[in-house]
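Q: Structure for this?
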Amino acid sequence: MAIELWWAARSPYCWRVQLALAYKGLAHEAHPVDIARQQQKSPALRRLTPRGRVPVLRDGDYVVFESVAVLYYLDRQYPQRPLFGASPQEGGVIVRVIEEFQSYIEPHLAAIFAGISAARDPVVHERILGHLLAAAGEARVIEGRLASSEWVVGAAPAAADFVIYPWITLLLDLLEGPAGGELRARFLPVEVQYPALARWLARLESLPGLAGTRRLHLADRES
Ligand SMILES: N[C@@H](CCC(=O)N[C@@H](CS)C(=O)NCC(=O)O)C(=O)O
């Protein structure tokens, strides 16, 4: 039975799973979910995941949700092109970097996305700027890793790359768009401010199948 994935456009959580599927060369049946229409709360999806969030992956009789759990499952079930490193030690670093990203950067990025539409309000603007500066500081740590390594951890693409890439790409897209305003200059141009990060983005996009996932999430910008 085919792997099935319920996913939503512009969801960094769904995108990381699609990157992993593409990287491992795993075909799947995609079920797009429209969050604006609350399709993730439909009874059919709630039967798969009580939280009513995406991504959700079904493989035969097995259902898994929470994106990092999905990555872990895919890696154990389909070990070709590993996502969690070539050794237990490398796996430990990959999971640590994911945890650090989710704990210390993701909340800032989520706050930027949630608030940006009201960024003309000076109070909101200050708050968003604070989140952007915090995220930019953490991005320096990733820039440092990528200055001495092609991938975030180890000698091959791995789960840490796939967790971080969608958020960075969606942030760049947001800042480049009309909502970016004067916040743009704090992060862009990425090639100048974060050159190793920019090279890594291009490197990931040149992997077979990965650019296709970009079109799924940024279709409105790239059509
Ligand atoms: N921790 C979850 C987060 C999943 C998540 O928040 N998904 C969002 C899409 S980006 C969602 O389904 N939101 C709809 C809702 O909360 O109703 C994961 O890693 O999968």
